[in-house]
Structure formats: C-alpha cells, structure tokens
Design goal:
The protein has 127 residues and is of the alpha/beta class. It contains four helices and six strands. Helix 1 runs parallel beside helix 2. The radius of gyration is 13 Å and the shape is globular.
C-alpha cells in the first residue's frame, strides 16, 4: 500500500473490506471501511491505520479521512482502533475526520460512548 499516490488500493480484511487512497486535491489520505468492525477485524484495521498514518507523515500530507458510511457494526475493539489512530494523528499534527456510519446500529455505538463528540465527524460519503 502506498498512500503517497492517488490510486486506490484494496486491502482485504476478513470481514471488512478497506480501501485506501490519497487525494491530491485535499492533501489527505482517504480510508474507506465497510462491513463489520469487531474484535476479529480490529487488529488488521489497527495495522492498516498505522501504515496509513506513517505514509501520511512521510508524504507530508495534512489529514486522514476515514469513511465509515458503509460500516454496519462497530464494537469496542473497532472504537479502540479509531482511538489509537486519533492519538497518532494528534501526536503528529494530522487532522483526522470520520464520515458517520449510515447504519443506525453503528452510529448508536458512537452516540452511547459519546465518541461522536470526541471525533470530528461529518455526514456523507468521501469524495
């Protein structure tokens, strides 16, 4: 995976397909996650987030957009992967934005934990 380029790279995850691309127009890496993010997928997702963050820092990009609009379920392990990414972004002065899940079940987890107030979130799919 190379987040310094503009093409999209598909990264197979057991139950949650992830695609990663870099947008030169917005100077950010875009990570699209779909399906379920639970204890089974979270370790691989953490690894991908670590690689994306390292690539963004190396390329001198200023942001990461994680599109969760197609996520249908997320549990505490998935939230922990996002929190880890957030910490890395804060430590590196990288702006992290999440696209809200369309699934009410997935969004409910963010609201119940108040993570919808912790993360910068917006509505709609990534460009």
């Amino acid at each position: 995976m190379d987040v310094t380029g503009i093409q999209m790279t598909e990264v197979p995850i057991t139950g949650a397909p992830i695609s990663i691309e870099a947008s030169s127009a917005t100077n950010e890496a875009i990570v699209t996650v779909s399906g379920r993010i639970d204890a089974v997928e979270a370790p691989e997702l953490r690894e991908e987030f670590d690689r994306v963050l390292a690539g963004v820092i190396e390329a001198g990009r200023t942001g990461i957009l994680v599109d969760l609009s197609r996520v249908v379920f997320i549990d505490s392990a998935g939230l922990a992967a996002l929190v880890r990414l957030r910490r890395g972004c804060l430590a590196s002065s990288i702006m992290l934005t999440l696209v809200r899940p369309v699934s009410e079940d997935a969004m409910r987890v963010f609201r119940l934990t108040r993570f919808d107030e912790v993360f910068t979130m917006r509505t709609g799919e990534s460009p």
